[in-house]
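call fold(seq) -> tokens
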Amino acid sequence: MLAKLDVGVIKRIWTIPYNGIPHVSTWGMEDTTVACRGKKMENIKPIKVLLVEDNSGDARLIGEMLDSPGSHIFSLKRVNSLSKGLRSLFPDDIDIVLLDLSLPDSHGLETFNRLYSRAPGVPIVILSGQDDESMAIRAVHEGAQDYLVKGRIDSGLLIRAIHYAIERKNAERELHGAYQKLKTAQEQLIQAGKMAAMGQLAAGISHELNQPLTGIKGFAQTALMDLEANSPLRDDLNKIVEQADRMDRIIRHVRFFARKSDFHLREMDMNGPVNDALMLLSEQLKVHNIRVKKSLSGDLPGVLGDPNQLEQVFLNLITNARDAIDILQRPEGGEIKIKSGTSGDRKHIELTFEDTGCGISEKALEHIFNPFFTTKSPDGGMGLGLSIVYRIIENHKGRIEVKSRTGRGTMFRIFLPVYKEVAPLNSAPAVLC
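ret:
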């Protein structure tokens, strides 16, 4: 009775007698593909083995060893040089490589190193005719999964070595992935500590600024009382009082914003945090020659949100837009459009932040919400901003979308679920600031 294995990625499929070896003597040929059978062949994914071996007799023996009874199936492809082995790695999606170190175009550990550097994720078992313990230790130290001496292996040892090599490589991948996650978490903790320290510093600075500001305002008001009604200095002093009041509002807001607080949801109007963020950044945007077009709906339904955290979202988006516009260095500056409204079914509040900045490449868009990913220069920050934005919106049961065109600008759209309808307010017209 014949058992037939159909493997789509290999070049030729051989029909192999259930109790024999490949009945076509092709092991001496280069670029030979052979399906080796196991005990049960249905519904078992074959292990794809690349054998890099120039000796036809050794290649035949390896094929016979893999063609032994058991619950395993091997799809074996043999090539007779390193260059052909390198070309065979990726198109055929190899699971493991059995590698002879002495080939026509390469010798010794250099053979392994060249193959390993091309595909470090593929487990490699070295098959050598030399019983050299120091060579074996060096090979394993440099990344080989095993070192087997040809004259001392049998079918059971070879098959076990293949299975163990694949399992060890899988374990290495999992360990590396866990290490990367731990490293990222550690970096996030360090950065979170820096941000907490900056919050404390901001609160302290705000407190220190408050006292001299009170003095400036008091002196200006006293001077106003002493001036004649028609004095030309009155306008200047009134401007000082107005700016002192504005600074007082900003300082109080910074102290509130920097205050450590738990995530606390309450019913709120989304326009509030938008206006608060603009209050902090409006003068800065003017200095950068950036115009803001604000169109906030006056009859927004309420949302369940944390105003402090949502303001952090909007500050991040606006400062990112500012930086993107600055990169282009246009004489006419740039523009940021901010719009709020409801979705067609009135189940979500929709906020749009659109800029005329440098835009984001399609490749970068795939990673833009990942922690520590940034398109800015090395001194432009750690890149935590948009990952925090994403997490905050996610915590609010919302979603954020981004569209961008390089050289044309970027648009972020935020959707938050409606909590409760609110009484209509007077619609706020477009405002330039």
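Residues 2-153 form a domain with the Rossmann fold fold (CATH 3.40.50.2300).
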